[in-house]
Amino acid sequence: MSRAASDVVPIDATLVSALRSGDETAMADLYDRYSGVVYSVALRVVGDTGVAEDILQDVFMQLWRNPQAFDANRGSLAGWLAVISRNRAIDFLRKRRPETEIEDVVVNVEPDMVRGAEWSLLLGKIRAVLAGMPGSQRSALEMSFFEGLTHGEIAQKTGEPLGTIKTRIRAGLLALRKACNQ
Amino acid sequence: MNAHEQIADDLALYALGTLEGAERTAVEKHLRECSACRSELERLRGDAAVLAFSASGARPPARSRERLLAAVAREARRPPAPAARKWPWWGALQWAAAAAVLAVFFLFVRQNDDLKQRVNQLATSSASQQQQLLQAKQLITALSAADADHFVLVASKTPPQPQGRAIYLAKSGTLVFLASNMPALPPEKIYELWLIPTSGAPIPAGLFRPNAEGSGSVVKPPLPVGVEAKTFAITVEPKEGSSAPTSQPIMLGTRG
């Protein structure tokens, strides 16, 4: 399905509002917009296409069952879904029950489109920041986020001090924030 | 070094969900008291989402879309109708659960356990809590229905009074608040709801602006878990809201 950029939105808030009324076509629209992000994040974490697909289904079914959990006034749906997908994937990796209720996840991030030129630009910025980071910082950040490792576990793996790992992770997140705000 | 600086690195780990033990407890304690750090937590989660975006590029298999939409159709939410009488609420829930088993079996096993646990918790909670939960569910449904009619009934010859109802479960930090007959506000002002804990400073519990009929609501604002509420209060604040009340409450709750 191809649509002009200006025609892609009904905005997320409208689509989620339609979900609340039981509108199944809104669900199809949301899937078309965000399934790639949700699936990619899950796949990056679990490394298995079948499991990633199951997580994708789970994340969207949770949105369908409980659209009130997403508050459009407090962040973008793309970011919210990406974080929910990552959390569910880490839960799977660690073989544990979901630790965080989806309602408790508030993600304050601007981009609400995961297609088109603006999205490509943003993605380029994000990847450039990651590529420009010292290897040890990028590695700590990715082990924490995509592998769900605690700073203790990362310190054990790398042999570096706990405080250094903590500082690197926070500095890495702030570097990403700065790049997105430019 | 102030408390924010001391906690900054740990807050980042907390945002990623990888902080454990005493450090996690300390961050949660600080978050209960510090709205600035609660806001920073949301921004850090946004930064984490940006990091998640870096994984973009893979496409799910084409069958996944049909699989999802089939599961959605099996759990279709249709407007309340006579069918609702034929299918009791819990029966529909069981049917929804059965459909989910087919769709996401291994994940559902965990969810089902979770659901059972919650049902057990509900069964052991007081009758009044169950009544309140049911009421909240019905109110949310009515509020979110586009075709709902709103009526306010008061004693004859009594002008409608501003009224708010807060339903709060401390153990999960869940709050549903509904207000009616609220006076309109100038554009630069907003109503702010406050959780007044049994000890400590008021905690922001959401902003709302009444609609043309004077109705407003706050559903599931971000609140720390496990805070016992003495009461709830409403103040008029600048439109962006405040981290601490800047005016006297115009409405104050009593337990009912």
What are the salient characteristics of this protein?
heterodimer, A: 182 residues, mainly alpha, Rna Polymerase Sigma Factor, Chain: A, Arc Repressor Mutant, subunit A, 2 domains, 8 helices, 0% strand, globular, disordered N terminus, B: 256 residues, alpha+beta, four-stranded antiparallel sheet, 45% helix
Topology:
The complex is a heterodimer of chains A (182) and B (256).
Chain A: H1 12-20, H2 24-46, H3 49-65, H4 77-93, H5 116-132, H6 135-146, H7 151-158, H8 162-181
Chain B: H1 3-15, H2 21-33, H3 35-53, H4 63-74, H5 83-86, H6 89-103, H7 105-124, H8 127-144, E1 163-169, E2 174-180, E3 189-197, E4 203-208, E5 216-219, E6 229-238, E7 251-252
Antiparallel strand pairs in B: 1-2, 2-5, 3-4, 3-6, 6-7
Helix pairs in contact in B: 1-2, 1-3, 4-6, 6-7
Would you write up a description of this structure?
- The complex is a heterodimer of chains A (182) and B (256).
- Chain A has 182 residues and is mainly α.
- Chain A folds into 2 domains: 112 residues, RNA polymerase sigma factor, region 2, helix turn helix motif (Rna Polymerase Sigma Factor, Chain: A), CATH 1.10.1740; 68 residues, Winged helix-like DNA-binding domain superfamily/Winged helix DNA-binding domain (Arc Repressor Mutant, subunit A), CATH 1.10.10.
- Chain A is built from 8 helices and no strands.
- In chain A, helix 5 packs antiparallel against helix 8.
- Chain A is globular, with a radius of gyration of 17 Å.
- The relative contact order of chain A is 0.10.
- The N terminus of chain A is likely disordered.
- The radius of gyration of chain B is 22 Å and the shape is globular.
- Chain B is an alpha+beta fold.
- Chain B is 45% helix and 18% strand.
- Chain B has 3 domains: 49 residues, no CATH class; 32 residues, no CATH class; 131 residues, no CATH class.
- Chain B has a 4-stranded antiparallel sheet, with no helix packed on it. Chain B has a 3-stranded antiparallel sheet with strand order 1-2-5, covered by helices on one side.
- Chain B contains 8 helices and 7 strands.
- Chains A and B meet through helix 2, helix 3, helix 4, helix 5 and helix 6 of A and helix 1, helix 3, helix 4, helix 6 and helix 7 of B.
